[in-house]
Inverse folding.
């Protein structure tokens, strides 16, 4: 039995848009309605929401140096 491939409305989660693409049966996220869809796909809206949470809750990377040291 195939899953229902009916159109699904876009939704918003923490400022990101989550969209379903019918012919691909995949969910995509983007930062806002004018931004392009990110290339990563998700099998459910739930997975897309978790990915957004990870993007927003991940701490910023710490620089490994590269600057001049003061003596």
């Amino acid at each position: 039995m195939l899953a229902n491939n009916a159109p699904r409305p876009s939704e918003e989660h923490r400022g990101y848009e989550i969209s379903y693409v019918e012919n691909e049966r995949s969910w995509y996220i983007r930062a806002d309605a004018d931004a392009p869809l990110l290339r990563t796909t998700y099998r459910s809206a739930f997975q897309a929401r978790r990915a957004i949470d990870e993007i927003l809750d991940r701490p910023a990377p710490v620089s490994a140096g590269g600057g001049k040291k003061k003596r």
Observations:
- Residues 5 and 47 are 17 Å apart (CA to CA).
- The longest helix spans residues 45-57.
